[in-house]
Amino acid sequence: MIDLAFFLAAAERGFPLDVDDAVAYLIQAEVLLPVDWSGEERTGQISQFVARRVEAFGEGRAVVAAVESAAMEAAGADLERGAHVPAILRAVDDALAPAGLALGELRSGDDTYRVGVMRRTTASSQAWGLDRPSTELLYIIDCPCGGMNVWQLSRTEPKPDEGECNSCGRNLFDPAGTPIVPMAMEPV
After folding, report:
1. Between residues 16 and 110, which one has the greater pLDDT?
2. Over the stretch 33-43, which tens digit does the pLDDT of each residue have?
3. All residues at 6 or more sequence positions from 177 whose CB lies less than 8 Å from its CB, including other chains
4. DSSP-derived 3-state class of residue 179
5. In the chain, which residue ranges form alpha helices assigned H by DSSP?
6. Which of 93, 100, 185, 186 is most buried, by the most CB atoms less than 10 A from its CB?
C-alpha cells in the first residue's frame, strides 16, 4: 500500500485507510483535493483547501496569509490554459516551506491533480513532492488529418515506432519506425 500518512496531521492518524478506497476516502475527508488540469472550479479553491489543511497541522494565520497571497499572485499571471494549476501549486508550496510544510501531489496517470499538505521532510518530498520525476511519458503525434494520437508509456519502455492514426487509419511511422510528422513527448 502506498503511504498516504504523509498527508495526515498528527490528530488524524487514526483514519481507517483501506487499500481499495484510501484515496477516495481522503478526498471525501478533505485531506486531499482533486483539481482538474484546466483550472480551479472556483477562484481560490486551492488556497482555501490549503488554509484548512495548514490549520489541521497547527500552523497559524501568517502561513495562511502567505499561501493566499502566493496563490492569488500565481492565479493572476497571464498563462496558457493548463499552466495555471501548476503555477498555483508551486507558489503555494514555496509559501508553505518556511512553516516546514509542503504541498504534495498524488499522481494517478490521469489529468487530475490530487494535492495535499504534509510535513516537509526528505522522505515526503521524494515520495510526494511536486517536482518528483514522472515515471511515465506521453508521446503525441498530431496526424496530418487533424487526429491526435497519444501513447502513455513507462520511462523504461522504448518510444513508439509503429501505429495507425485513430481517426483516419494512416500509418504514423515509416518502415524504419520514424514518425511521419514530429512526435512530442511530455511527462505525465
Report:
1. 110
2. 999 888 888 88
3. 161, 162
4. strand
5. 22-28, 45-56, 61-75, 84-96, 122-128
6. 93
10 CA to centre of own chain: 24
φ, ψ at 35 (rounded to 5°): -130, 130
Provide the residue count of the chain: 188
By the 8 A CB rule, do 105 and 115 touch?
A: yes
CA distance 121 to 51: 20
Number of H helices, E strands in the chain: 5, 6
pLDDT per position as a tens digit, 124-178 = 776 676 666 667 788 999 999 999 999 988 888 999 999 999 999 999 999 999 9
Q: Which residue has the cell 475527508?
A: 29
For residue 161, CA distances in Å to 36, 117, 129, 167, 180 come to 31, 40, 32, 18, 10
Taking the C-alpha atoms of residue 88 and residue 65, their distance in angstroms, rounded to an integer, is: 15
Distances (CA, A) of 188 to 89, 100, 163: 16, 27, 21
Q: How far is residue 106 from each of residues 32, 61, 70, 111, 112, measured CA to CA in Å?
A: 9, 26, 22, 12, 9
One-letter amino acid of 48? Q
29 vs 27: CA distance, rounded Å: 5
Q: What does the pLDDT read at residue 181? A: 95
Q: What is the DSSP letter of 102?
A: E
